[in-house]
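Workshop exercise sheet. Pairs work together: one partner reads the sequence aloud, the other fills in the structure field after running the prediction. Swap roles for the next sheet.
Pair: D.N. / O.F.
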Amino acid sequence: MRMRRLTAWLLLSIACALPSPKAEAQSGEMPLTVTAIDGPGWGEDRRRVRQEDIARGVNFVDCENASDTWIEFTLAPGSVTVQALDLWIGVGAETCQSSSSRTPPSETCQRVGYIQLGGSTGSAPDPDEDNVVAIGLDAVLAAGEYSFCDFGAAVSTVNFFFVADNENFRGDVGTIEANHWRILPVKFDAGPPNAPTFKDGDYAGDREVVVEWNPVTAGGSETTRYRVYVEPRGCDGGSGALVGGGRPPIDVTEAFTRSERITGTSFAVRLSNLGLEIGESAAVYVTAMDEAYNESNLSEPICVTRVPTAGFCAAYEAAEGEPCPSSCSTVGGSPSSVLWLSAFLGLVAVYTHRRRFAR
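Structure field:
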């Protein structure tokens, strides 16, 4: 028994004396983070600084306008002294961590460049802060032959591998301090959803018309949102700013209006605000949008027409002594709508007669 205990003690002592195997590092400790994605859109579509928006990643509009898109990385001040960053990129599972992934002739990562802190690459403007670097998307795409920015491409992860103050670094990360390198993944989603289609309907009225479309599934558990575009007189030879099946414009002009993101599948078009005369029509389009702010192509348009329903509202207001509800003004000019209008006017007349008789 004593011999076995002695043997076990000796083995344990030898094991403790041996150097422990060095675990492969997964990411360095340099305090660098992604703090903004700036693209060609407008409003919150353009500069994304909230973490939930940054997590949605780079979308197709960003890719389509790579010279107007950049990603900002910020180094936490005071924690480490850094003058410049050497940048490599790898796609998917490739993190660029191994020396072989950055060494010709069979390297699997591509080098973007050596960027001074407070500077930029590609078409990106220099940042205002001296602890930030702005990486232009055009510089990223120019580094190699990639498909993650192609229209309809599957969601990809692009790993940005940074090394501090070591230009064209091709060595082993184990030879440098952990706070002098970092791997930061950025999501790329260039797959817009399909364009919605409008439901059949009699889209005519006086004050407003409610248009409806069939829902679109963006993919997985994503919540699909929608945008409605209205081009006044677009059905009568409008500006041509919108084309069914084409890409939606990035910027809003005076030629059309655009809604905010809609979670439902209907929208009230206010004809009274469009300046339409009786008998004139406006073209309405709808697009679907996924969580990465990828917007589908424009749907084929429908025409909403302003028709006279003043007689109906006048009868209602005379009977009730209050303004005509907006829902009442959506009655169209089709034969079926006229029959419903006549029937309702009859009911109003009977109701009015009974109220007066009761008095």
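Discussion prompt: The chain has three domains: 26-189, 204-306, 310-358. What would you look at next?
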